[in-house]
Design brief:
By secondary structure, this protein is of the alpha/beta class. The protein is built from 18 helices and 24 strands. Helix 3 packs across helix 4.
């Protein structure tokens, strides 16, 4: 017995062990090879929370998923929590390695521990297969396995280095929406050449939404047939046992916004975002007209237009991004015409990128955040490159800073030093600009960061595993729009514009009630003119009315 099992495990067959077949077994083997759904339902066992080890009887949507995986190279799935999505894919992967020789499969998740747990579930199902269906085991551990037919499975975290240098027939990405943006981008730039080199290689992406990130883009592109991915969407009500009563109980135990994200699978962003979820849903991204080395251009510079660039500087250590946004501030609504984001560029090189882009946009006014190493970037722009349109700021009390151009006395400094007060003002202004449609954002990365920019304590920060470098550029710009220098620069007062619009809206709301001329208007008119010159007539109430 010990001569036929792998390392003393009675559930695993050792490699190079002769197998005798009956006619029935040969016929069943042929059926399993041809039909993965038959193989899964007849031979795969899974662990049920209520019943322990049981045969895997698939729901209808799980059968459809297996069929789609089998027939297509690229699949992306948007499914609710606890719907058996990972188990379904694991079962299909087991079929793939058993009935295909010399294939490599990568199971990748947002965390290595999650990927290894998925592999452990596959190994459990493998151990409970009939011995005549098993391939002999060559190696078997927590992070990988190899079978005697030459097929291998690797479990790892989703990272650029996870599968670099290898050749994989299937890459399974679990909970891809929860992979940090910088890691997701590096992963695809590193791995996609490996995937595209084969004619039958597959990519299977499965996740619950988590903000408007790379998974969101890939899903939208698949739905609108801008990519080769086949989209699979499953509603929570398709899972047996989930009905209106279950929904009500789940919302009571969590929250409605959490239910919408995790079970309705809406791309609403995180809970308690700076920008309201309703507004985030309306934001749409566009494809840049040019993209190169981190710079995305949405509009080319126009003569006689005024532009402003706000800059956030990182250390170039792959975690955070050095970023800037270029705004057309010629008229309201303001709009992003270009954006730059790179998490590897060094602070010594970044000033040159800023300089070239600012000059291209009509010598754009440049405001740099100088809390940390940004001060060195600002100094390089001012003294090494002698850029004329750097914006300075001077402190006046703890409430914030006042814009200024060029050098001035007192506490003036190059750029803006972000404090709790300036961030608070900037975030408040940014919320109002976006929700009142005074700032047009066509960029996916900006929208993605806004969808995970949430309340933390008394301030706002990126959700765990997310970044907010572009949002920093946006709230610096929003802070600037309320400063005296900006109003003089653009001949626009955004606050007064919004107040006028609110005043107009109030008048329109009141108009249906009617205005009654009493003949006393001229006596009171001196008290009825507001700062905008709007004349208000008294409304005479009918004593018989209800209001």
């Amino acid at each position: 017995m010990t001569e036929t099992v792998y390392l003393g495990n009675p559930n695993l067959k050792k490699a190079n062990v002769a197998q005798e077949w009956t006619k029935e077994q040969l016929e069943e083997y042929a059926k399993c090879m041809e039909n993965p759904q038959h193989f899964i339902e007849e031979h795969i066992k899974i662990v049920s929370l209520d019943e322990g080890l049981v045969p895997f009887k698939m729901y209808d949507f799980q059968k459809d998923m297996v069929g789609t995986f089998h027939k297509n190279r690229f699949t992306i799935c948007k499914l609710p929590r606890q719907s058996g999505k990972s188990t379904t894919i694991i079962a299909y992967l087991l079929h793939y390695v058993l009935f295909n020789a010399q294939v490599n499969v990568a199971i990748l998740a947002n965390k290595a521990a999650v990927a290894r747990d998925l592999l452990a579930r596959l190994q459990l199902a493998y151990e409970h297969l009939p011995k005549w269906l098993q391939q002999g085991v060559m190696s078997w551990n927590k992070g990988s396995l190899e079978l005697e037919n030459g097929s291998k499975i690797l479990a790892s975290s989703t990272s650029a280095s996870a599968v670099r240098g290898g050749s994989y027939n299937i890459i399974f990405l679990d909970e891809f929406a929860y992979v940090p943006a910088n890691v997701a981008e590096q992963f695809f730039s590193s791995v996609y050449p490996t995937i595209s080199s084969g004619k039958t290689s597959k990519v299977m992406i499965v996740s619950t939404p988590h903000g408007m990130n790379m998974f969101y883009k890939m899903w939208v592109d698949a739905e609108e047939k801008r990519s080769s991915y086949v989209p699979i969407e499953v509603h929570w009500s398709e899972v047996p046992g989930r009905d209106a009563k279950w929904k009500e109980e789940t919302i009571k135990n969590t929250s409605e916004s959490q239910f919408n994200t995790e079970f309705e699978c809406e791309f609403l962003g995180s809970i308690d975002t700076l920008i309201s979820p309703a507004k985030l849903k309306t934001l749409t991204y566009h494809t840049p007209i040019k993209s190169n080395a981190g710079l995305d251009v949405y509009e080319n510079p126009l003569p006689d237009h005024t532009y402003m660039m706000t800059v956030d500087v990182a250390r170039g250590a792959s975690k955070d991004y050095s970023a800037f946004v270029v705004m057309d501030i010629t008229q309201i609504p303001y709009k992003i015409v270009a954006k730059y984001r790179d998490n590897e560029i060094k602070p010594l090189v970044f000033p040159q990128v800023i300089y070239n882009s600012a000059r291209a946009y009509n010598q754009a006014f440049v405001l740099i955040e100088v809390n940390d190493i940004g001060e060195g970037v600002a100094n390089a722009m001012q003294f090494d490159m002698e850029y004329d349109n750097l914006v300075m700021a001077s402190m006046r009390g703890r409430a914030g800073q006042v814009m200024g151009g060029g050098f001035s006395g007192g506490k003036a400094q190059l750029g803006i030093r972000t404090t709790k007060a300036t961030k608070s003002v900037g975030c408040s202004n940014l919320k109002q600009l976006i929700e009142d449609d005074k700032l047009y954002i066509p960029d996916l990365d900006c929208i993605s960061e806004l969808s995970t920019f949430i309340v933390k304590g008394k301030s706002f920060e990126a959700d765990e595993g997310c970044t907010d470098d572009l949002v920093a550029c946006l709230f610096i710009f929003a802070w600037a729009t309320d400063q005296t220098y900006f109003k003089e620069l653009t001949d626009q007062d955004i606050r007064q514009t919004m107040l006028r619009e609110q005043q107009d809206a109030l008048e329109q709301d009141m108009a249906p009630f009617g205005f009654v001329v009493t003949g006393l208007e001229d006596e009171n008119i001196g008290n009825m003119v507001d700062e905008y010159g709007t004349r208000w007539n008294p409304v005479v109430r009918d004593n018989n009315s209800d209001w």
